[in-house]
Amino acid sequence: MTALFITFEGLDGSGKSTHLREAFRWLEDNDVDCQVAQEPGGTPLGEAIREMFLDPRWGEIDGTVEALLVFASRRQHLLEVIEPALAEGRHVICDRFTDSTFAYQGYGRGVPISILREVDRLATGGRVPDRTLLFDLPAEVARQRGHSEARRESEEGVTRLDAEALEFYGKVRQGYLELAQEFSDRFVVIRSAGTFESTQQQVRSVLSEIFRLEK
Ligand code: TMP
Question: Is 0.85 surpassed by the pTM of this model?
């Protein structure tokens, strides 16, 4: 089987990162050779960009500046980690990729999608995930989860984007749903407002189909 590039996408508070960790363990138990990655980040340079990108000290940064930061991190990540892993035949499961930039900087901040597509061609050579799991839930629910005590006490604490108004997250969610409709052959929408178990069940069902496993 050719190595696959799978991405997990969704709002902050959608649960995608927790489900990605759980899915990774489950895939390992099922002898699927894969590695996980995260954006922005995934390399030493990318982690430095991530720290800068999320630092609440900068307040609201211009959307184009944000896009250039995440694309810089992404190119390094592709060159150093993602492309070599795929070339060696290992599947890569990535927590966010270019769809995050379309949703957050494009739909959320208003940077024209046509420009983001051009920068994407430069930064990634147009690398598109084979499949994308979109963790969808109402923006209000995602905000409540995102502002939870657990999040505040996490290593990164409250980040720059956590301070965004609900309206911003509404636009980002809408953007994700439009992307899922436009690229319906690649996207699968996971309903993630319910319990952890019901969401993980949907994830396993999709991954079983992708990796041809028993459910
Ligand atoms: P994370 O907490 O899911 O790792 O994401 C970090 C934040 O970065 C999250 O608020 C979404 C934001 N982000 C963008 O705005 N654009 C991007 O391209 C990426 C990858 C993340």
Answer: yes
| Domain at 5-211, CATH homologous superfamily | P-loop containing nucleotide triphosphate hydrolases (3.40.50.300)
**Per-residue pLDDT, 148:** 65
- Kindly list the domain boundaries of the chain, sorted by start residue: 5-211
Ligand 1: residues whose CB is within 6 Å? 12, 17, 38-40, 66, 70, 96, 100-101, 104-105, 161
Q: Which residue, 200, 136, 194, is CA-closest to 169?
A: 136
The protein residue with its alpha carbon nearest to ligand 1, atom 13, reads 100
- The minimum-distance atom of ligand 1 relative to the CA of 98 is 18
* CB-based contacts of 92, cutoff 8 Å, min separation 6: 3, 4, 5, 6, 34, 35, 36, 37, 81, 82, 85, 86
Q: Is 188 in contact with 208 (CB distance < 8 Å)?
A: no
> From the CA of 199, how far away is ligand 1's center (Å)?
21
Mean pLDDT for the chain overall: 94
Place of tokens 């959608």: 14
- Find the 214 Cα to ligand 1 centroid distance in Å: 33
In whole angstroms, give the CA distance from residue 168 to residue 99.
Answer: 16
Output the CA 213–ligand 1 centroid distance in Å.
30
What band does 149 get if pLDDT is binned at 50, 70 and 90?
low
